[in-house]
Structure of 3-hydroxybutyryl-CoA dehydrogenase:
Amino acid sequence: MNVKTMMVIGAGQMGAGIAQVFAQAGFQVKLNDLSEDALQKGRSGIEKRLSRAVEKERISEGEASATLERLQTTTKLEDSYDCDLVIEAVVENMDVKTNVFQTLDKHAPSHAILASNTSSLPITEIAAVTERPSQVIGMHFMNPVPVMKLVEIIRALQTSDETYEAIETITKQLSKTPVEVNDFPGFVSNRVLMPMINEAIYTVYEGVATPEAVDDVMKLGMNHPMGPLTLADFIGLDTCLYIMEVLHEGFGDSKYRPCPLLRQYVKAGWLGKKSGRGFYQYS
Ligand code: CAA
Ligand code: NAD
């Protein structure tokens, strides 16, 4: 399959990063969000990262401006009419995602692959709401997208080999490494990572240590690049909570129960770096 034009739905931290790497790899990209404000925020983040790459002599000025020329923004899902691939990166909520997929299914051409960047939700259930389940797949990028090498590719029960192979090829064209996994809650990445983050939050909740001390233990003792609480703030505490809820409900096992402190932070609007406050203050 020859993908020339693609669309990314959601211009938040993941969607903007995904749009950037596709545009840098030479694809025509349409970036979609609900409002012009969100699109502007996403686009200006991409512009900033490209200027930094020019300053550091990683790319030329010509490459940066050609990348931006390949990037359009739109608030209309109807603009997917000429896209060969669409990647959804909206909030981690099944109802919102299935709505987006049903609308896309009406507007994207019949040959188009519809992928989700979901962190944990069942791709099989998302595929089932469309008329093209064999062309639906999970394409799970890691944060920050321009830096991290992994793309976890999740096969739904209905995903065809042709769809899988097309996504594997595109992942390599982005200079990233595909890893194939099957469709179970949290896949592999978040089934392993998120219980560690949740346990780190429990240690703070139970007064075992301060956030700084927990992070120091994992950074200096286990050589993690970021401590788990810094990482939780970086991912977004709302996203962390949604993922723990998917694991808890999906496996029905109390070992995945979200820490009450995580719930409380999300209720307070302390969502981490993106809201200015989480386990740490950002300003
Ligand atoms: N967006 C884009 N680029 C970024 C960035 C961001 N938010 N933050 C840092 N970078 C880039 C920098 O520009 C720099 O690039 P150059 O080398 O080209 O200059 C490079 O990353 C290294 O940055 P720094 O030297 O400033 O910082 P660092 O060495 O501490 O690395 C890091 C930063 C790469 C983010 C590192 O701390 C790290 O690997 N952290 C862990 C990240 C991680 O675990 N991600 C997975 C999260 S889980 C997930 O994504 C799945 C999910 O579903 C929740
Ligand atoms: P975010 O909150 O930064 O961005 C979400 C964006 O989606 C927002 O700009 C919002 O306006 C937009 N949006 C919401 N509903 C929409 C709709 N109906 N149509 C178009 N746009 C809509 O979230 P994020 O961190 O970028 O996460 C997005 C997805 O990626 C989630 O499924 C998340 O689980 C997954 N993910 C997140 C990370 C991470 O580290 N944050 C890593 C991998 C995957």
